[in-house]
Amino acid sequence: MPGPSEFPGSASRGRIKLVAGGRLLILGGSQLLVFWSLSQGEGPLSPAARLSLAALVVSLTLPVLQLVASARHFYAVEVAMGQLLIDQLLISVLVFLSGGVASGATSLYGLSCLAGGLTLGVPGAVAAALAGGVCFSLTALIEQARALPLPGLLPPLDRSGDQATFYVVVNVLVLALVALLVSYLVERVARASGELVVARQRAAAAERLAALGRLAAGLAHEIRNPLSSIAGSVQILRTGLEQPEDRQLCDIVLRESARLEELVSDMVDLSRQRRPQPEEVDVGAIVSDVIELMRRSGRALSDVTIRQVGERTVRVRADPGQLRQLVWNLVRNAVQASSAGGEVRVELAVGRVVTFIVDDDGVGIDPDALGQLFDAFFTTRSQGTGIGLAVVKRIADEHGFELRVDSGSGKGARFEVDLGVPLRLNDASSAADGKDAGPFAF
């Protein structure tokens, strides 16, 4: 059964295998070399040789236990942290047995910091550095107090108090530097890995859009022509009908044909990969035109009201056609999401940047669905296609617009798009700040 904390993915477990192999090779090999040196000669093993043998057994056993814990997801993080602390103790034993504070084995403390960074990130590197500094300081104190006799693998040195302090200070400073460098590199690698994942996701999304584009291009012509024929024929047939029931059936055919035409248009818009051609454009005029067009389509005779507030004339740099498509899709989405008797508020707020805002009184969006809201074919409505907002996201990304959404279950949705800095504002034709521009029955 998994423990309370596990490594987040297969890449982390791969690094654990790499670090475990390095431990066996470097630390285990160093312990084996020291044990072989101490065990030379006849007679039973000396206390130093027995201590070296015990350290060798632990050095060879712990990496295997860590691999097992990682593979079984059993307290993997805790085991890895414990491994780091024990490594510093084993290195301190190796330092003591191979000549004390002057031993070259002190460099292994820095390698342990690197192992901590690879397995646990910044916390692992910092923990290994702290543990290494404490263990080395204790080793120096034991050597200085002559509490235990040195094995004598190296020629005796003058280990005065000043010299021991010098070794401790230098080693602690080096460990701090190694921990900082490892932490920096780990953060950079993590950031690069995240960017690589995002790039792969974008590449996959682009491939899906390309496939959709090829499909849409092939189907659009074949679908639109029959739809136009059907709609035209039904309209002619409807003019000669006298029974209300027959006229109602024709209205259903016309309405559903319009829905199919709208779906085909959305698919073509989503798959079209035309680069935007920015120019100076009056976004206020586009918003007003879209609202007027909305009155003549969809739920034009129903019970949704659109209210335009804020500025009426403000210019930005954008592709006119794609900007109109963005405004159209956001307003249409708000109308479709509105409940009976609801109101959609459309606003252009001018400050440091021009912000286009669409606010509705619908049922809102579940927080769990916000992360997928702009994915193609993802929709929360039974009659939705999940294409309109994907088109909005694509246009915003291509223009560099910042797109935000604020919603929750039962409180409606608010979409905001920063369109960039205003180029020119006609105050004479602008509405007063915050003044209601009047409702448009929808």
Descriptive tags:
442 residues, alpha+beta, Heat Shock Protein 90, 6-stranded mixed β-sheet, 10 helices
Task: Provide a compact summary of the structure.
The protein is α+β, with helices and mostly antiparallel strands and about 450 residues long. The chain has helices at about 10-40, 45-70, 75-95, 110-120, 120-145, 160-240, 245-270, 285-295, 320-335, 390-400; strands spanning about 280, 305-310, 315-320, 345-350, 355-360, 400-405, 415-420, 425, 435-440.
How would you describe this structure to a colleague?
The protein is α+β, with helices and mostly antiparallel strands. The model is unreliable at 425-442 (pLDDT under 50). A hairpin with a 3-residue loop joins strand 4 (343-350) and strand 5 (354-360). The protein has a 6-stranded mixed sheet, covered by helices on one side. The chain has a 3-stranded antiparallel sheet with strand order 1-3-8. It has 3 domains: 10-201, no CATH class; 206-271; 279-441, Histidine kinase-like ATPase, C-terminal domain (Heat Shock Protein 90). It contains 10 helices and 9 strands. Helix 4 packs parallel to helix 6.
**N-C termini distance:** 59 Å
Taking the sheet with the most strands, its summary is:
6 strands, mixed
Q: Total number of helical segments?
A: 10
Structural category is: alpha+beta
Percent helix range? 55-70%
Question: How many beta-strand elements?
Answer: 9
Give, in order, the helices and strands.
HHHHHHHEHEEHEEHEEEE
Strand percentage, roughly? 5-15%
CA radius of gyration: 36 Å
